[in-house]
Design a protein that fits this description.
8-stranded antiparallel barrel, Porin
């Protein structure tokens, strides 16, 4: 049952991203790119250093669509590429970490002016990863970084492309990848990997890509309120323990600075059954909602690409009776505008570098 729920959570991250980009992809013009990876696991906790036995290596296959400006958002974002990557990494510790295989949709946001030969890109991707050797109390008790086979996956990469000919291009970059399950299964320190990549791509279909250029009207800068209701589930530190439900209600207010960036803030309320269990473990028993409920305020930023946005929140609790998880909370993730007003939400709630739980929700923008 636990594995099935993890699968559903991970697949959801892929589907919401894939759906948001697939609707804009052309059908015949695409690029296939094969790349080799070499790098290392980042030891972000002292107690995980013994798991790192050497350098990671692997390969990646990318299926890439180029945008040409047929839609306004493509011109606003300087004709980004949209792709799906399949990544395989050998983690240099077969007995305790095994291998990692990931599939993830992504976008290459062009950082320089569109050129025919060379382009510098910021690559943002999120999907799911399968780790072959997760924690097991009997067979693999020393793996304290990953507690489940299936995990969420995030890739951030500075990449470059150089068209050698009209058909072939060289792909190179340096990036960070992260895999974890958002505390759905403990332990969950997470895998952070830094890798260099180098490979070759081939363009199918149209070789002479013509970029459309229209005059884009200025953005209407206004405050946009929204309300989002979320639910999540997590384990406490004890592996194979019970799952605890958490609920939240978020009141958000964003102001568009331009078509890409928005700033704002908000107020949110949460009720986390894990907090109640922590109090019980400390011999403090309560059934009062006011003892478990938490209220926080936050400042927010969102990067928007068409219907998809990437929110980042930095918050502080203004009402909290329990010291568990500290004073500050944070959030990263994805939001997708299903309609003009309906919001689909998949975000990760954290306390500094410690993941709390994935938030699944739906909202309404006024």
């Amino acid at each position: 049952m636990r594995k099935n729920k993890t699968i559903i959570s991970a697949i959801g991250c892929v589907l919401i991203t894939l759906f948001s980009v697939a609707q804009n992809a052309p059908g015949k013009d695409f690029i296939l790119s094969g790349q080799a990876h070499y790098g290392f696991i980042i030891s972000h906790r002292n107690n995980m250093a013994n798991l790192i036995k050497g350098y990671v290596s692997g390969a990646e296959l990318n299926y890439i669509f180029r945008t040409n400006g047929n839609k306004a958002w493509q011109q606003i974002h300087n004709y980004p590429e949209i792709g799906v990557g399949a990544l395989y990494l050998e983690l240099a510790n077969h007995s305790q970490l095994g291998h990692l295989a990931a599939i993830y949709p992504y976008t290459n946001i062009r950082l320089n002016k569109s050129g025919k030969k060379f382009n510098l890109n910021l690559r943002l991707g999120t999907g799911l990863a399968y780790v072959t050797k997760p924690f097991d109390i009997n067979t693999n008790p020393k793996n304290i970084v990953i507690g489940s086979y299936l995990n969420g996956f995030v890739n951030l990469r500075l990449s470059s492309t150089w068209m050698i000919t009209k058909s072939f291009r060289l792909d190179a970059g340096i990036g960070l990848s992260h895999a974890s399950n958002g505390s759905f299964s403990s332990p969950n320190l997470g895998l952070n990997m830094a890798t260099l990549n180098l490979g070759l791509g081939y363009a199918f279909g149209n070789k002479e890509y013509i970029y459309k250029k229209d005059k884009i009207p200025p953005v209407i800068s206004k405050w946009e309120p929204s309300i989002i209701s979320v639910i999540g589930m997590k384990e406490l530190e004890m592996p194979n323990g019970p799952k605890y439900l958490a609920y939240g209600l978020q009141l958000n207010l964003y102001k568009k600075l331009n078509y890409k960036n928005s700033l704002g803030g908000g107020i949110e309320m949460t009720y986390n059954n894990a907090t109640k269990q922590v109090w019980t473990d400390q011999s403090i028993h309560t059934d009062k909602v006011s003892d478990i409920a938490q209220v926080g305020t936050k400042v927010s930023y969102a990067f928007t690409m068409h219907r998809l946005s990437l929110p980042i929140d930095f918050g502080v609790y203004v009402y909290k009776k329990q010291a568990y998880n500290g004073l500050f909370f944070h959030r990263i993730g994805l939001r997708y505008m299903v309609t003009k007003n309906i919001i689909a939400n998949i975000t990760l709630r954290t306390h500094w570098a410690t993941a709390d739980y994935f938030e699944w929700g739906i909202g309404y923008k006024l």
